[in-house]
Amino acid sequence: LSPEELAELELNTKYCKADPVISEAFSIGLTMLDACLLVDCEELYDFENFSFKNYQFQDNLVALKSMNLSPFFIKTVLNLLEVQCFNRPTAGEVLAIMQPYQR
Amino acid sequence: MGNQQTPRGEERIPGNAVNHPLFSSAKLTINKKMVVEYRFTEEFTELAKKIYALKPQEESLPLLLPKMEMSHSENFCSVDKSINVRVALAQLIYDFYRTTLRDEIALRREKKISFDETELWFLLYHLAVGSAAFQRKKQKSGDIRPRNILIDDKGSIAVVNHLSFPSETTNYYKALYKK
């Protein structure tokens, strides 16, 4: 779930207005964060209160930045994890970013 | 449809698998008070047979699972009835793959073996391909997370949709639990 989807869940709206493509990009980012840090990001969600544990999330982002990975990779994952949905790339845009590097 | 080898090398007879009690009926206990019995339709059994015949995908294209109708012995429950069908389908599909990303992460956490960057790019690429494939089909996975990402013996990845939905997170369940 992206932050905007979680907000919709809290409002209990019948039809989610969040852009599913953009929201999915956040899910990909979180999955990558899981894989990078070997953590379980599902723990970041508090479904009882429809909230996202932002402090813990920010800690994870700091840990990601300090990893021995290329700045390009880290930047790509961080872009996917943009809390502001309008700053987040779609999966298609990520593929386009990667395309020049494909063999 | 002949016998098949699972990724673990075990011989499997598809016909026997779909006769397993899990796939002919299942019981759901909610809060130890209510038992809802599901009986899967013939249509589901046919679908299960087809899925069972699937071989691990060469490309990481998503496995799209159609929503299935099934008979329901009670009519009081507002929980999404398709959840349990998905669980049964998930069981079928998981049998073909060595592990999920979630389990792989847990294993690596225990053994303190990180993914290297090549593996991470590989994963990112296949997640993006999977998500883009959903978009092309005008469908949203909506549930990309490590437990829905399957990894086979060759290390190839498949993204599956709607396989896991924790019923305990539904408002219905929570309301029921509070009572």
Could you characterize the architecture of this molecule?
The complex is a heterodimer of chains A (103) and B (179). Chain A has 103 residues and is mainly α. Chain A is built from 5 helices and 2 strands; from the N terminus they run H-H-E-E-H-H-H. A two-stranded antiparallel sheet of chain A has the order 1-2. In chain A, helix 2 (20-37) packs across helix 4. Chain A is flat. Chain B has 179 residues and is an alpha+beta fold. Chain B starts with a strand and ends with a helix. In chain B, helix 3 runs parallel beside helix 4 (82-94). In chain B, 26% of the residues are buried. The interface between A and B is medium-sized, with 31 and 32 residues.
Question: What order do the helices and strands come in, and which of them pair?
Answer:
The complex is a heterodimer of chains A (103) and B (179).
Chain A: H1 3-11, H2 20-37, E1 45-46, E2 51-52, H3 54-65, H4 71-80, H5 91-98
Antiparallel strand pairs in A: 1-2
Helix pairs in contact in A: 2-4
Chain B: E1 4-5, E2 11-12, H1 14-18, H2 21-24, E3 25-30, E4 34-39, H3 42-52, E5 71-72, H4 82-94, E6 99-100, H5 101-111, H6 117-136, E7 149-151, E8 157-159, H7 171-178
Antiparallel strand pairs in B: 1-2, 3-4, 4-5, 6-7, 7-8
Helix pairs in contact in B: 3-4
Let me know the largest β-sheet of chain A: 2 strands, antiparallel
Apparent shape of chain A: flat
What class do helices, strands and sheet pairing of chain B give? alpha+beta
Determine the structural class of chain A based on helices, strands and strand pairing.
mainly alpha
Major β-sheet of chain B, in short?
3 strands, antiparallel
Low-confidence stretches of chain B: 1-41, 52-83, 162-179
In a nutshell, what does this entry contain?
The complex is a heterodimer of chains A (103) and B (179). By secondary structure, chain A is mainly alpha-helical.
